[in-house]
């Protein structure tokens, strides 16, 4: 058997991740983040709806820069999870599983969610 | 071949896989419609924002969205726990915490929508 030069370790920092792998781990991270902050988002939704007084409180919270930063982060997490999820639904139907297309679509997911975060983030701020 | 079934496992079926996709599609459709509503006639003040969810169709659709969201989150978070948390007792403990949280969120969502 010929000795191989290929590395035998699985050090994530030393492996160059392909774009679909980056989209995949970000899909997991964004999903976990949305779950972790779901309670806060639900609370904000309640404040915005339950009464005119709570609506005023909601507006005051949402106007704070820290809240805007938080909401921008949540916005990116939602958008990335949304578009990466759409890509997985297409992959389930065997659309875009060819290497060139899957790379292009992964770049599309990364780019679209970042671009929309910037556009909607500007509206938010 | 026999399969060892763990109480903290995924129940080895297509059901969860399918539920995750069906709930995803429901949420995606709701999101597109909701964004459309906000773009076409953005609520200008509290009254209009409240009126949007007082509409019976919107209330039911939003309720469906929340149920989909929490069911979807349950499958996703459990998948993450199955990947990274190996001891059964710790995983079961965390799964219980997550399940209680999500059921609580669903209760809160019902309360928010039906107290309007």
Supply the key terms.
heterodimer; A: 125 residues; mainly alpha; 3 helical TM bundles of succinate and fumarate reductases; 5 helices; elongated; B: 116 residues; 78% helix
Radius of gyration of chain B: 18 Å
Helix content of chain A: over 70%
Summed up, the domain count of chain A is: 1
Number of domains of chain B: 1
Concise synopsis of the structure shown:
By secondary structure, chain A is mostly helical. Chain A is built from five helices and no strands.
How are the SSEs ordered, and which strands pair?
The complex is a heterodimer of chains A (125) and B (116).
Chain A: H1 19-36, H2 38-49, H3 52-63, H4 65-92, H5 99-124
Chain B: H1 15-40, H2 46-54, H3 56-84, H4 88-114
Helix pairs in contact in B: 1-3, 3-4
Please provide a written account of the structure.
The complex is a heterodimer of chains A (125) and B (116). With 125 residues, chain A is mainly α. Chain A has one domain (19-124): 3 helical TM bundles of succinate and fumarate reductases (Up-down Bundle). Chain A is built from five helices and no strands. Chain A is elongated and about 75 Å long. The mean pLDDT of chain A is 92. By secondary structure, chain B is an all-alpha fold. In chain B, helix 1 (15-40) packs across helix 3 and helix 3 (56-84) packs antiparallel against helix 4 (88-114). Chain B has one domain (15-114): 3 helical TM bundles of succinate and fumarate reductases. Helix content of chain B is 78%, strand content 0%. The chains are: A mainly alpha (125), B mainly alpha (116).
